[in-house]
UniProtKB/TrEMBL annotation:
This is Antibiotic biosynthesis monooxygenase. InterPro entries: Dimeric_a/b-barrel. It comes from the Bacteria.
Length: 110
């Protein structure tokens, strides 16, 4: 992903969560407004993915950052720590206990 701002993304922060298929549509709306929208105010960019399975749906949110320091200004001193949304316990099958933080090695438009 090439982000729209002039600063190059060097770090990706990846969050995953699962909900039941019955709650997936409502959670998609909630996650976009309460989770992704605030990310877009601070991150260089963000993406939200959804995979529907037979009985559950998995959501993946990836945010892009110029550095660990920039991400920490948003996420706090431990950028792998989860900041659950207010209604996550209502929607999610289990609350995730961390996020994945990866260095972006290649970031070229296709």
């Amino acid at each position: 992903m090439t982000v729209s701002k002039t600063v190059q993304a060097r770090i990706a922060r990846i969050w995953r969560g699962r909900t039941t298929r019955a709650k997936a549509d409502a959670y998609a709306v909630y996650l976009r407004s309460e989770g992704v929208a605030p990310l877009l105010e601070k991150a260089l960019g963000a993406q939200m993915f959804r995979e529907d399975r037979e009985t559950e749906s998995e959501f993946v949110t990836i945010s892009y950052w110029e550095s660990i320091e920039a991400m920490s200004r948003f996420a706090g001193p431990d950028p792998r720590r989860i900041h659950h949304l207010a209604r996550d316990a209502e929607f999610l099958i289990e609350l995730p206990d961390g996020v994945q933080v990866l260095e972006i090695v290649v970031n070229e438009p296709g």
